[in-house]
Amino acid sequence: MNRQDYFSDRANGMKRSVIRELLKLTAKPGIISFAGGLPAPATFPVDYVEAAVDGVIEEEHETALQYGPTEGDARLREDFAIIMRKDGIKTTADHILITTASQQGLDLVAKIFLNPGDTCITGSPTYLGGLQAFKSYQGVPVGVELDDRGMIPEKLEETIVRLEGENRKPRFIYIIPDFQNPAGVTIPESRRRQILDIARKGEYLIIEDTPYRQLRYSGQSQPTFQSMAPEMVLSLYTISKILLPGFRLGWACGPDWIVDKMVMAKQAVDLCTPPFTQAITHAMLVNGALEKGLETTIQLYSNRRKLMLSCLEKEFAEIEGVSWTKPEGGLFLWLTLPEGMSTEEIFEQAIEEKVAYVPGSAFYPNNDNFRSMRLNFSYASEEQICEGVKRLGKVVRKNI
Amino acid sequence: MNRQDYFSDRANGMKRSVIRELLKLTAKPGIISFAGGLPAPATFPVDYVEAAVDGVIEEEHETALQYGPTEGDARLREDFAIIMRKDGIKTTADHILITTASQQGLDLVAKIFLNPGDTCITGSPTYLGGLQAFKSYQGVPVGVELDDRGMIPEKLEETIVRLEGENRKPRFIYIIPDFQNPAGVTIPESRRRQILDIARKGEYLIIEDTPYRQLRYSGQSQPTFQSMAPEMVLSLYTISKILLPGFRLGWACGPDWIVDKMVMAKQAVDLCTPPFTQAITHAMLVNGALEKGLETTIQLYSNRRKLMLSCLEKEFAEIEGVSWTKPEGGLFLWLTLPEGMSTEEIFEQAIEEKVAYVPGSAFYPNNDNFRSMRLNFSYASEEQICEGVKRLGKVVRKNI
User: Fold this and answer.
1) Which string of DSSP letters, residue by residue, matches B298-341?
2) B261 at interface of A, judged by CB pairs closer than 8 A
3) Which of the four CATH numbers 3.50.50.60, 3.90.76.10, 3.40.640.10, 2.60.120.200 does domain B48-289 have?
4) Are B107 and A269 an interchain contact pair (Cβ–Cβ within 8 Å)?
């Protein structure tokens, strides 16, 4: 028997993550990488972890080292509900499922909603991990164009009409409303309402992925989809960008009938999220780790974003046709090169010049757009940002 | 739109875990529960956790609190390879994928091997979490009868011939060779070789699930399937029963081409297993937590097993038609009632008498066998074991 005869159709369709493979290249010494999406280790609340761990081991090792409920630690579900209520969302702990970070939220969404061949709406571009999760169940993500204000409602409506006409009604609309990965753009309230109206008309669920929402550096906070339409929105959160990624902790919040099904699915997936790290996180949140940590994280990333923007201005202002987004928060911005250029084609040269990014094509459902690149500004140091953008400028100018 | 119209076919087929629902009943005060599969908290190596955590936070928080590689922490993969080599398996770290406990191993197996409608072979009875994982991808587990020496090779061959004849060739053979959950039985070497021969003839993969292997209280260790046929066996391990479950840590070991595909699948499932708990586990293993911990765990469980067996002997010896397995290790034994009785039917009476077990039907692919119950002997205290078995005897005698 051939090896591929052993695998399921969905497995035979799987590819290694482009970014994961790229990251191996970018790990070479001397390379300044804007490619990853890593938080800066300086933002990790190490003291809070230390204090919380001691308490957990001392006082609750019998439960923290044992199996736990699939839904998650009841105290932590309440902590997460509080974070959401402070953000203007009327929700309670029983609408919350704790997940092994938000990537598991995406996996569960794909598992419970997508039959093979089913379409779903995503941004074009959108988060690569979302595309991977949907495709791993043989779902077919269909991209809707973004502009500087996020997903374009008219394009969304067009796409839905077209798909319904082809009898390929999408199963849900996947949106990253705040500081989108990869484009860095945020959807303003008025446009959120337009999108909601379109979704309501067709009875569509919205999957709101919001890992960066707490990381706003400028501008006005916009209301979440969850706060505007809790009956039709499932929201995915993670502590990876606001506290630390190493615990793999996140949560999903939405209508009971969806969260219930996710709990059932999760029972077969990993029984429960680690109770140990849930207990630690609860203790950290009670001690104020989030408020304290966010303050310094926002300060640091805000400075790095500002620096990267001013370096880009210096380096690229005189090159016609180069543009970039000015994110009000998050970890990424999106640089677009002049018509005819390809960020994939010049990637090798960039590596030779010892600077790395992610070619934009990775973020398109059909990998069919080559002019853009994603730049991360949270991980590299200030000196690296200045030097890296210079190297990037050199590569681009050589290819014009 | 109806709610079920939103869900995928696989989601509409999902049910809540019978055991999880039962466990809620058994959590009532005063109930002695043999229902769960929990390790005794007294076995948790709390001191080792404490020492390891301090070192990790002190010396490697930058990596332990960050994202990590999908394959897992390279040091821990080597630690796990060492555990396997000590057990007579010639393997190396690069054949190992660290999973979010072995339930994730089962989920990944189902994901990469099972198309909807595909059959796979399991024991009858078998681990409920395996059945759930396979069914959650619309796989169709087909049970093969066990006796006191585990899966019966003749029955396996019969089943395979029948399925092949129906053009429903199974995708793999799922086996728990040591101290099987739920039956407590172990397959002797000669029978393992017979099963391997059958698998080889039909070019079948064997999924060897081995969470309890290190917990042997009597008798001779039998060689693993992995050691006998590494080219056709994927083995799933977990630290849940030998160290602690609260980290949700396990591993899969097998041929490169399978492990590679599991890595790809895992990228979309949760990116990586928590680096924090991996780093702690590595430090614990280096410090000898496993050797030290196993000594006391084996002592404790061995005593409890012996006690439960002698209580059963006292309580049930004179009731004709009652039998039970005498496991050489693990956490469970399997009690079978006389013809015509149903452990499901008397379950409510048992709860009234304040003793709980899992009705055996939960462990059969078609839930069609009602005479047996699973009894856990790792969690209840010595006093509870004696009193619980007495209560059980009372319920059974009332129904004869």
Assistant:
1) HHHHHHHHHHHHHHHHHHHTTSTT-EE---SBSSEEEEE--TT-
2) yes
3) 3.40.640.10
4) yes
Which pair of tokens denotes residue A170?
A: 């999408």
Buried b (16+ CB within 10 A) or exposed e, B329-351: bbbbbbbbbeeebbbbebbeebb
Looking at this protein, which amino acid is placed at residue B121? I
Per-residue DSSP letter, A329: B
Residue type, B331: L
ipTM of the complex, rounded to two decimals: 0.96
**Predicted confidence band of residue B21 (pLDDT cuts 50, 70, 90):** confident
Which residues in chain B (222-241) have CB-CB distances under 8 A to chain A? Answer: 240
pLDDT tens-digit readout, B181-230:
999 999 999 999 999 999 999 999 999 999 999 999 999 999 999 999 99
CATH number of A60-288: 3.40.640.10
Best probe of the B interface among A15, A18, A21, A65, by most B CBs < 10 A, is A65
DSSP type of residue B69:
-
CB B269 within 8 A of CB B104: yes
Residue in A133, A263, A265 closest to B136 by CB: A265
Structural domain boundaries of chain A?
Answer: 3-44+292-398, 60-288
From B15, B68, B267, residue closest to A17, measured CB to CB: B267
Q: Please provide the DSSP assignment of B79-139 as one string.
A: HHHHHHHHTT----GGGEEEESHHHHHHHHHHHHH--TT-EEEEEES--HHHHHHHHHTT-
The class level of CATH for A3-44+292-398 reads alpha beta
Query: Shortest Cα distance from A198 to chain B (angstroms)?
Result: 16
Average pLDDT over residues B314-320: 93
Nearest chain B Cα distance for residue A356, angstroms: 19
B200 Cα to chain A: minimum distance (Å): 12
Indicate yes or no: CB of A268 within 8 angstroms of CB of B203.
no
B101: nearest CB among A115, A136, A271: A271
Q: Residue B154's pLDDT band (boundaries 50, 70, 90)?
A: very high
- The nearest alpha carbon in chain A to B71 belongs to A20
Contact yes or no for B11 and A261 at CB 8 A: yes
- Does A49 contact B at CB distance below 8 Å? yes
